Amino acid sequence: MMSKGEQTRARVLQTTLDLMERQGFHNTGLQQIIKESGTPKGSLYFHFPEGKDQIAALALAQGAAIIQGLIEQAFAASRSPRQAMDMVVKGLTVRLVESDFCKGCPVATVALEIGDQHPLVKQACEAAYSHWLTVIANGLKAFGMSAAKARKEATLLLSGLEGALILAKVQRDTAPLKQVADAMMERLSE
After folding, report:
1. For residue 114, how many other CB atoms are within 10 A of its CB?
2. Span 27-81, pLDDT tens digits
3. Max CA-CA distance within the chain?
């Protein structure tokens, strides 16, 4: 069981992740995090002395871990790269639809707007993408693909998924994910 402090910290991070995924980093303010998480202002600064950037970076790491788990689970449960990526796409589709097209990638919204002024947040975005690429590449290598080819394919697959998630959110339609999934499946079958 989590202590009261751990519960407060977890609630703040989850609230921050939800807000940033819906509205981005710059549109998510500390006052909104405090209000929506039900956390006293003093507790926020006690648990996160470095302020908003620290909260955002930790929240992004938490969101990145969810997607990384989805990818790892898909490769572990699959008999082929094609099946693994199909599972990843299905998981992302469910996440998108269940959130009424608000939750695609927990990192993309922030990654697209963040600059060098927020190094902790930028590092969290970079780490998320780096880890996802590594997990996909390792999954592809486990199915016999060379390391060099696996890295190239991982970059292409992740880029395709990210682009499809953006289009799906904007269009409020899962068709882009299905189309990218079909193209990935064809490519992985070659």
Report:
1. 22
2. 999 999 999 999 988 888 899 999 999 999 999 999 999 999 999 999 999 999 9
3. 57
